[in-house]
């Protein structure tokens, strides 16, 4: 098993945000997908992926349809994806993905969290190079030979394929998302969910007291409505 497997195992041990937070994130993803490629999932691969993720998160169908309809309204604010980089206490690198309709507000909030928790908000490119930007797909395991699939999907960019509980996970570089999504759809393989993650190249082990310091900052950041995902180099 490779780094993607270990990263996934570590993330599963981590607390998951409240359902309302997950629905808020998906709602923003829907708005960005519709604004970018239109409201028809058949013609908008990004929107198809978001709808799959909404189903995986048990988001009611009417909520999804309402979000798509709202996104087509010209008065609905568009969200801009902004990446923040910095350091938590004890040299732990942080990458923070946000989706915001007010960049000034988001910048001010993120900076305040770092300041209050003895962290340092960095400049663009200061820590991003420490993480591999990956895409992932979750598909049903039934009828799938993992080793055979790994050989076949190398040509589409897949780097790691493994079984996770009852499903199979495919990991690949960020830029391979479209090719793998298209090939899975061509083979009529159901995509249960898909997304993007940033896997740390190296992690740092901390003491319990040091972990508590980092967790204090992580909690403040993750509670912010503009924050979509937070990645760090702390060993879990």
Plain-language structure description:
It is a single chain. This protein has 236 residues and is α+β, with helices and mostly antiparallel strands. Helix content is 42%, strand content 24%. The protein is built from eight helices and eight strands, in the order H-H-H-H-E-E-H-E-E-H-E-E-H-E-H-E. The strands form two sheets. Strands 3-1-2-8 form a four-stranded antiparallel β-sheet. A four-stranded antiparallel β-sheet has the order 5-6-4-7, with helices on both faces. The longest helix has 19 residues, at 19-37.
Entry keywords:
single chain, globular, 236 residues, 42% helix, alpha+beta, 4-stranded antiparallel beta sheet, 8 strands
Mind sketching the topology for me?
Elements: H1 3-13, H2 19-37, H3 45-56, H4 61-71, E1 80-88, E2 92-100, H5 103-116, E3 120-121, E4 131-140, H6 146-153, E5 160-164, E6 167-173, H7 177-186, E7 193-200, H8 208-222, E8 227-232
Helix pairs in contact: 2-3, 2-4
Short description:
The protein is built from 8 helices and 8 strands, in the order H-H-H-H-E-E-H-E-E-H-E-E-H-E-H-E. It is of the alpha+beta class.
């Amino acid at each position: 098993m490779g780094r993607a497997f270990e990263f996934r195992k570590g993330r599963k041990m981590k607390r998951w945000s409240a359902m309302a937070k997950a629905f808020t994130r998906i709602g923003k993803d829907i708005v960005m997908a519709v604004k970018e490629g239109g409201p028809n999932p058949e013609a908008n691969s990004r929107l198809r992926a978001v709808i799959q993720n909404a189903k995986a998160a048990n988001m009611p169908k009417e909520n999804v349809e309402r979000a798509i309809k709202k996104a087509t309204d010209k008065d609905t604010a568009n969200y801009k994806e902004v990446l923040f980089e910095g350091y938590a206490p004890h040299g732990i690198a942080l990458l923070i993905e946000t989706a915001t309709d007010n960049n000034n507000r988001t910048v001010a909030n993120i900076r305040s969290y770092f300041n209050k928790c003895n962290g340092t908000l960095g400049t663009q490119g200061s820590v991003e190079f420490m993480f591999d930007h990956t895409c992932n797909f979750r598909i049903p395991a039934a009828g799938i030979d993992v080793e055979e699939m790994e050989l076949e999907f190398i040509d589409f960019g897949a780097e790691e394929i493994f079984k996770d509980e009852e499903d199979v996970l495919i990991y690949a570089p960020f830029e391979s998302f479209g090719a793998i999504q298209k090939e899975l759809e061509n083979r009529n393989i159901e995509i249960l969910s898909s997304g993007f993650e940033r896997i740390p190249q190296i992690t740092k082990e901390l003491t319990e007291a040091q972990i508590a310091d980092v967790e204090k900052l992580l909690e403040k950041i993750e509670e912010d409505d503009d924050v979509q995902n937070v990645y760090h180099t702390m060993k879990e």
